[in-house]
Design goal:
Length: about 140
Amino acid sequence: MATELYKTAVRAVILDHQNRVMLGLRSKETSPGYNQWALFGGKPKEKETLKKATVREVKEEIGLNIRVKRLFTTTLDKSTTPHDPWMVYFYVVEIIGGNLQIKLDEHSRAEYFSREQLEGIDIAFNHRNVLADFFTS
């Protein structure tokens, strides 16, 4: 459930069998992170648990059914709105079904990237730092 002090968001770290992470290219021009790569996720609904929000957001955004394996980290992200930061919960998840169907009003593409490939792309929010921590932990 959301924290009282900050706006809350959840993000899914989706890996394939080659240990590459799936990111989406954000397509909504009026949203922060437009035309940058980001982990999938969003805001929990009222009284929705963080894990359920993660499952719902991934299903809504890319059509995949996932299972939350564990919480990787929590960060206070001031990169988008320094005066109004977000508490972001990053969950490691696994795909358990569904078909990749990108919700085009949020993302134009979804791709897997290796740790090395992350250096060459424009990544939104604090996701570059989170992924660097993830791959070195």
